[in-house]
DNA sequence: TCGGCGCATTAACCTAGGTTAACGCCTCTC
DNA sequence: GAGAGGCGTTAACCTAGGTTAATGCGCCGA
């Protein structure tokens, strides 16, 4: 609802990627600036929808800061899972745009987020003039496909315990810090409810697992803060790395 | 092991796609012919590997006829699932090629198959000269990604029963025929063991499910032949279509 | 200030599917 | 013709996780 300019924020989401190594970095500074010019950045409040499942794809959403989750629900609306998280720097809506499909999941703001929107027509135009960008997208789509296979495999193969360890390792890379005594402290940016949905289980089962993990001394859970004694031990004992 | 020419088969896998609507159809007849010229077609026997998990990707494999399955196993080698099937007309190895990764799954010949191999360098060369082909691949990769999400969702959400119904509907489209009395007859091209692996459960559980389905009168199972009384009823009752 | 709502937790209970083991059957090989 | 090995099935048993229900807590809005 709130435009970024109102907050004195400069809309330079894409130009800033010039220095980094995202897919967009293959574009020239000028091309990126041109995207920024037409991008519309807004601040979205927690709990609101960025887009809904089944809705036609109108463009892409660059998450500048905050946190957004992509949900999927069955036709009856029940059994919602959290398919993926979009952290700052991530882009939403690119898949349906490239596939020329509707959104297969709905995006919900999990933490107040600044999100920049760029319409389909702009992106298509950019792509038409930049085979290099298309090439990069193809490569990362192919990799994402491999990751999705891996996720499927994991869901069939691994226990909730193991999958939780996997999720924690994502947050470790992302928002983990080391305490004075050398142990790892995680301030989870998600409710346990959402973490359950991310793993695809009920909150009650999640609760059960974290209590057991706590009892066994692997980690201490207090609210959304997790104190991990020995992270490598946890991941190693509970489920070996599936970094392939 | 056996070259196609030895059998008097003409190597025209790719040229033939000119008339059809696959991704390759965007190429000119000449370009397709040029691929055929360097393609190596061989007949692979049941049980042999086309490529193995973790192996670097040397090129793509066009399945001309027969049936190939892509397996995934965990580091210890156990708990093998069947991730996808390659029917005649399908191509294997394109994902790792585009992602510039190694094979994340191993391909095993399930029915004696004629498979045409084209090396990485040829494909890369073709792609470099055809943005149109790259565009088509990007689109289908994006769609495949959506399908993989769906598969994940289904594995988390749906029962074995439902997932079996889903698999049967694949074979219905593929190798189903209608009996004189109007009922549907499927001659499954896979062992039940492999169908279990496709769904991600043990053969024993599979057995349990088909017996129940038989008892309840939905279908009759005899060896690898399935007689389905009322297919739409089965799919409708057991799990609504997830055609989104 | 109070009521209500959504998160989190616990406990009791239930069930789908994994595990183990045994058996029949087929095919291939020696 | 005998053995071996793979498939398919059944049965008995076990466990992870879903289901239901109850309780406490914190937050928000009236």
Write the layout of secondary structure elements.
The structure is a homodimer of 244-residue chains.
Chain A: E1 2-3, H1 29-38, E2 40-44, E3 49-51, E4 59-72, E5 81-86, E6 91-92, H2 94-99, E7 106-119, H3 120-129, H4 131-157, H5 160-175, E8 176-178, E9 184-187, H6 192-199, H7 203-215, E10 219-222, E11 225-228, H8 231-238
Antiparallel strand pairs in A: 1-2, 2-7, 3-7, 4-5, 4-6, 4-7, 8-9, 9-11, 10-11
Helix pairs in contact in A: 3-4, 5-8, 6-7
The first copy, chain A, binds a DNA duplex (30 and 30 nucleotides) through residues 159-160, 191-193, 201-209, 211, 223.
Task: Summarize the structure in words.
Two copies of one chain form a homodimer. The first copy, chain A, contains eight helices and eleven strands. The first copy, chain A, has 244 residues and is of the alpha+beta class. In chain A, the strands form two sheets. In chain A, strands 1, 2, 3, 4, 5, 6 and 7 form a seven-stranded antiparallel sheet that branches. In chain A, strand 4 and strand 5 form a beta hairpin. In chain A, helix 5 (160-175) packs antiparallel against helix 8. The radius of gyration of chain A is 19 Å and the shape is globular. The A-B interface holds A 54, 72, 74-75, 79, 81, 83, 95-96, 98-101, 104-105, 131, 134-135, 137-139, 141-146, 148-153, 155-157, 200, 240, 242, 244 and B 54, 72, 74-75, 79, 81, 83, 95-96, 98-101, 104-105, 131, 134-135, 137-139, 141-146, 148-153, 155-157, 200, 240, 242, 244. The structure holds a DNA duplex (30 and 30 nucleotides).
């Amino acid at each position: 609802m709130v435009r970024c300019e109102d907050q004195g924020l400069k809309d330079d989401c894409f130009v800033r990627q010039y220095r980094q190594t995202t897919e967009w970095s293959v574009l020239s500074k000028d091309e990126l600036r041109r995207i920024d010019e037409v991008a519309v950045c807004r601040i979205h409040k927690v709990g609101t929808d960025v887009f809904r499942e089944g809705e036609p794809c109108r463009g892409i959403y660059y998450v500048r800061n905050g946190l957004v989750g992509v949900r999927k629900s069955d036709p009856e609306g029940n059994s919602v899972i959290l398919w993926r998280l979009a952290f700052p720097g991530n882009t939403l809506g690119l898949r349906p745009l490239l596939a020329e499909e509707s959104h297969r999941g709905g995006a919900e703001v999990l933490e107040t987020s600044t999100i920049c929107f760029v319409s389909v027509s702009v992106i298509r135009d950019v792509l038409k003039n930049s085979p290099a960008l298309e090439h990069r997208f193809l490569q990362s789509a192919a990799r994402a496909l491999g990751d999705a296979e891996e996720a499927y495999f994991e869901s069939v193969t691994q226990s909730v315990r193991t999958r939780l360890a996997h999720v924690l390792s994502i947050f470790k890379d992302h928002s983990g810090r080391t305490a004075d005594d050398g142990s790892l402290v995680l301030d989870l940016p998600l409710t346990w409810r959402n973490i359950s949905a991310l793993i695809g289980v009920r909150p009650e089962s999640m609760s059960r697992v974290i209590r057991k993990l706590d009892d066994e001394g692997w980690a201490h859970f207090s609210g959304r803060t997790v104190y991990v004694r020995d992270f490598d031990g946890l991941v190693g004992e509970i489920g070996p790395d599936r970094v392939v």
